[in-house]
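--- STAGE predict ---
source: upstream dedup step, 1 unique chain passed
mode: sequence only
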Amino acid sequence: MHGAHRAGDRTYFVIDLAKTIGKFATATALAGLCASAAFGQQEAGQIMASDALNIPEDISLLQPGDPNSRSATATVNGQIITRTDVEQRVALILAANETESVPEDELNRLRMQVFRNLIDETIQIQEAAAQEMPVSRDEVDQTYNRLATQRFGRTPEEMATYLQSIGSAPQSLKRQIEGELAWNRLLSRNVAPFVNVSTEEVNELMERLKASKGTAEYRIGEIYLSATPTTRAQVSANAQQIVDQLKQGGSFVAYARQYSESSTASAGGDLGWIRLEQLQNPQLESVVRGLQPGQLAGPIEIPGGFDILYLIDKRQIGMADPRDAIVSLKQISIEFPKGTTQQAASERANEFAAAMEQITSCGQAESAAQPFNADVVSNEGLAIRALPEALQTMLLDLDVGRTTPPFGSLDEGVRVLLLCGREAAQADAGPNFDELMAQLEDDRVNKRAQRYLRDLRRDAVIEYK
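--- STAGE serialize ---
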């Protein structure tokens, strides 16, 4: 699994072109800037649904120093990486992830990861130049300008001002762009053309998928931390600390982006929908099989490091999932004036609930809402899966024209959802031949990319200050 899912051991980026290897398209990679992971998209879907309906959701090497310090922390084949380079990149990451404050121990770990990324970045830029295909300044500027306007809605000048305001600088982002473009170029010429997947391999995989119809398929999030015999104890401790913080409510997507050494880090650790055999590790298979959606497992020691796994979801292959049904809803909500007592609010909520129970069709929403001066908001084409889990359960059993039980609080008000229509979920036909071919090719490119970067690191002259 891990070789197939790692491209160069890069861990946490504001933008990520290299991790989209197999596609080799800058525009595609730029679309990943500050975007949610695949299961982060699931989380984002929930947030969007909640917004639409206003539904609430329940080492010393790199110590902080003078942000203008130009002292070297390392030289890579004679090229200096300074403390300022590290701090500006850290500031960029924190801002992109809307992180206001980070505990000092986490911040130091992030500095170390950024430091390693900068070393890899420098090696990649140097290798592209050595192979006479450097990234030009014009290419970097064009990408930077497109990024500023398309993703941030700013002019290049405004983008520069913004980056400086957060403690970063345009040259920091441009350096990262140059590194990603250089790596993308190296892979597209030196790796991708030598990856071959036969028609027989794809057909065999399609037959296995057909035979697996009705069996369980899992959507898994992964945080992978590599370890050697020398670093095993420290990595194990770091992994346990991440698990503890996740159990206290930390975002798996954010931690995967920040700490995972899998190429899925930019996607929040999401491995996508897979069968357990694809994990290629009986121990991991057993662990995942015992999980329920929303549960966390780890750290699990595996060859080469440690895994932290999160079961995002589970379904039956080739079978329709009721939660994929598309519904049309109306939300009817009341608010309590400031100063309303708990008793008064409870009485009004009970009256509201009784009236809502009398609704038998979607057309009655406005008239039923009027006596309570309630707001009515419509939402069309919403997947049940995009709603909070508690509401999913309610809607799965709800008849069209009826309302959910009321929910809310004194501060947030009380609301119900009225089901106006439901479009039955369709079974997923699964990937077609071309999609499977692309998946297998990408997996092999990822494996070779990891070896390629490992060789470049081995041959580089890196001096630490």
